[in-house]
Write a structure and sequence with these properties.
Oligomer: heterodimer
Strand content of chain B: 15-25%
Mean pLDDT of chain A: 90
Number of domains of chain B: 2
Radius of gyration of chain A: 21 Å
CATH architecture of the largest domain in chain B: 3-Layer(aba) Sandwich
CATH topology of the largest domain in chain B: Rossmann fold
CATH class of the largest domain in chain B: Alpha Beta
CATH architecture of the domain at 5-114 and 183-197 and 210-268 and 275-284 in chain A: 3-Layer(aba) Sandwich
Radius of gyration of chain B: 21 Å
Number of helices of chain B: 10
Order of helices and strands of chain A: EHEEHEEHEHHHHEHEHEEHHHEE
Shape of chain B: globular
Strand order of the largest sheet of chain A: 6-7-8-3-9-10-12-11
Largest interface: A-B, 41 and 43 residues
Order of helices and strands of chain B: EEEHEEHEHHHEHEHEEHHHEEE
Largest sheet of chain B: 9 strands, mixed
Distance between the termini of chain B: 9 Å
CATH superfamily of the largest domain in chain B: P-loop containing nucleotide triphosphate hydrolases
Number of helices of chain A: 12
Helix content of chain A: 25-40%
Low-confidence stretches of chain B: none
Shape of chain A: globular
Strand order of the largest sheet of chain B: 6-7-8-3-9-10-12-11-13
Number of strands of chain B: 13
Low-confidence stretches of chain A: none
CATH class of the domain at 5-114 and 183-197 and 210-268 and 275-284 in chain A: Alpha Beta
Number of strands of chain A: 12
Structural class of chain B: alpha/beta
Amino acid sequence: MNEKEIIRVEHLKKYFPVEKGFLEKLLTRTRNYVKAVDDINFTVQEGEVFTLAGESGCGKSTTGKLITRLMPPTSGRIYFHNTDITATHKEQLRVIRRKLQIIFQDPYASLNPRMRIGQSVGHPLEIHGIAKGTEKRKKVLEILERIGLAPPEQFVDLYPYQLSGGQRQRIAMARSLILKPEFIVADEPVSMIDVSLRTTIIDLMLDLRRELELTYLFITHDLAIAKYISDRVAIMYLGKIVEMGSKQEIFMNPMHPYTQALLSAIPVPNPQRQRKTLELKGEVSSAINIPPGCRFNPRCPYATQKCIETEPELIEATKGHFVACYQAGT
Amino acid sequence: MMEKPAHLLTIEGLTVEYWARRGRIRAVEDVSFSMDKSETLGIVGESGSGKSTLGLSLIHLVPYPGRIVRGTILLEGQNILKFGNEKTRDLRGRRISYIFQDPMTSLNPVERIRNHFVELIQTHEPKVTETEAIARATKLFKDVGIQPERIDDYPHQLSGGMRQRVMIALALALNPSVVVADEPTTALDVIVQAKILDLLKTLQHAYGMALLLITHDLSIVLERSDKIMVMYAGRMVEEAPSTTLYARTQHPYSQGLLKSIPNIELAEQKLTAIRGAPPDLLNPPAGCKFWPRCAYTMEVCRIREPPLFQTSKDHRVRCYLYSGEEAQ
């Protein structure tokens, strides 16, 4: 693998203010925040599939939106090829966006229902002033064929409602690929797609990575898919990365109790398997009132006094395997 | 076929159609199966396979413009499709109850949780006082693992997992003999999902009910059911005990499904997709509904729909590859 880093995220935070009622606003001065992303650091190397995984509310999608600058971070830095994109102006950002695309979860909502496929897919070319007219159409047909909608002439004039979920997700991919990006954030790209079609979309993504030299930030709640697609994985819990490492390390040698619990809860397609779930107490704490110390401590079976008092840092336990837990490995 | 009154629930030739403006859709066609006490039957299929319509038929609640056009549903020997309004109402909740996919929308947001229980119990058992109903609800809360004082909460005060626990408690409140759980954990995170499925299993043992587990997730049914029925385009394409289905998968669609789901316990895995896409039920292909996606298509597959072949004592498959076996 190429050791050049394409994305570097430093101390990234995103806090959303909580709206209060009228009376509460008058009576109290403190503001509450949902700490969706709370000081995370990671890098993505060129050509790899880096996965952010975790349960709903862990901040994985917010991270994806921050990296594509669809929302500004509260603090922290995001570097794309060593350019700080949190500090760029509109015009610069437009240039960077050509290289930095996102695919959303829901292909029923992410395509304009009143635009024909050709218009949707070709629209980015116009916005960025790359091509129009017959040249645009040529490029659109090329990319449609590439993502497996052949013959493309049959699809280009259809509307989204005439396509299946899997086909729509291919269109969404075509739309982000037409600008020849280097880096793609794929936010749960297959979770709305039927099981028998998921694999085709995932395999297409992996094929395109090789051919077009893409790098992916893959966001998913489904660890079985994460295991299939990723090179490296980061597990998030309540806005923090709690464990990060190569796929082999995370799945074969999980160190954080949360990762262990997540892995043990995944259903396995085998009726003979003896399930040994690691039981966790309670449910995910509220992102408004994050518990002090390690934010996982109220649910952790191994929590000690130290875990309640001070928050563990994400440290390198073995080469390339990072974990934020005092008990890791014990 | 011979009726075995020993079965708790027997479904014969159930066919459900939706009459849409653009035509008629056979959502469920000629489905037959039976269930016994304390048994878990997993029904697995993709969207549009008819699995939810099948579940709703069991409580006679197929939404308009759907209708059950043929078949019988025998519960303890009685055909529930012949029931009038009174008896159907008595059936729902008391004899067969239903756990819906989305616990966010299936509870009334302006009623406290306690009122859900009081209303349900008093509707079916008018003699029960409010205090008695609440006492019963409190006990159920203990069974499903929620603190009893949460009974005074409104649905929005509970998390998704807790709401689904409430739904399960409601489904058990009248001690039904069959519980239909339609994607009970699809809206939930994986840790909560495992807990809810464990809970269903425990309660099933405690209450002795039969559980019909409907899901798109083959991993879940393989892990959690005694028997599995695979549905495709409204047809049951394969039915077998889960260990048999796993060890000797016969229908090409079931085989394809198994090959396309990732298994977290395997070190290296190559997934293979099923080519093509599920059929448009307004214009289904002639013959076997799966032939356009099948790797083993023969001439006969395109012309005539295969019947169910009995390949062993409790293994049935709708595929001509097994036509040497006895057809039903």
